[in-house]
Specification:
By secondary structure, the chain is mainly β. It contains two helices and 17 strands. Bound molecules: 2-acetamido-2-deoxy-beta-D-glucopyranose (2 copies). One 2-acetamido-2-deoxy-beta-D-glucopyranose binds next to strand 12. Keywords: Signal.
Amino acid sequence: MTQSVFRVFTLAALLLVPAAQAVTVIPKTAFNSVADFEKYFDYLYPWGSDHNGSGRMVKGNVNVASGTLSLVATPTSNPVPPTSAANPHPAIHYASGAVHAKDHITVTAGNSYSIYGEFSALTPKGTWPAFWLTAVNGWPPEVDIGEWKGTANNWYNTFNTSSQVKSDLVAWPTDLSFHSLRADLTAQGSSVKIDFFMDNQLKATQYGANFAGAPMWLIINLQMEGSSGSPGPTGTTTYKIRNVQVTRTGS
Ligand SMILES: *[C@@H]1O[C@H](CO)[C@@H](O)[C@H](O)[C@H]1NC(C)=O
Ligand SMILES: *[C@@H]1O[C@H](CO)[C@@H](O)[C@H](O)[C@H]1NC(C)=O
């Protein structure tokens, strides 16, 4: 065959090489309806209703409609039992909302993940919304993509151990407008490299030791008081989330 025909064939062959295909693990439409939501998410934390603040999660404080997930915290009195089942067993002062993705996120040498969402997050004292990854087995890994602790900052955190944590704070507007957060995770040997973005600008890079191959939960919750200070709000507070998308390249 002539050289030009050969070139055409070579080009065609190159175009047919299967590029690493991105798989949509959670689509942006997951909050369009309760039925869509329940395909990809379960209610509460993976371990139940209680964690490290004064909010007790209940299904009734999770609302899904028109592409937006709303987690609502309402003051509660005489909760039973009165304290959290989880360490450090804080007193319960609120009913609130938490959800977690059904699929685990496991970063390996053969894949990479991109985790995205848009957030109208509260920053008053006593409000502790989060969008985070935590270990399925033991702890860590933990990666906090969104964590607001009662001040006008988002905290990006990666925990190697309970005492070895890297935190990068980025200023967060307090007007409840939506801003996007994204974390891109890739393995580097036994570690995982995490690039954190806000409104599509790279803000921080952190590394998690021994995170490769460790399955993680993706959790969205409105916890209250605890690390965000107390007392928290006396009225109803709402944390809104939209366009959450998880994609995986590779297997
Ligand atoms: C408490 O939960 C938040 C997520 O809401 C997490 O980022 C943090 O590491 C937890 N703190 C402790 C001490 O368990
Ligand atoms: C956690 O471990 C990684 C290595 O995987 C290292 O690069 C990083 O600096 C460690 N983080 C802290 C806070 O020591």
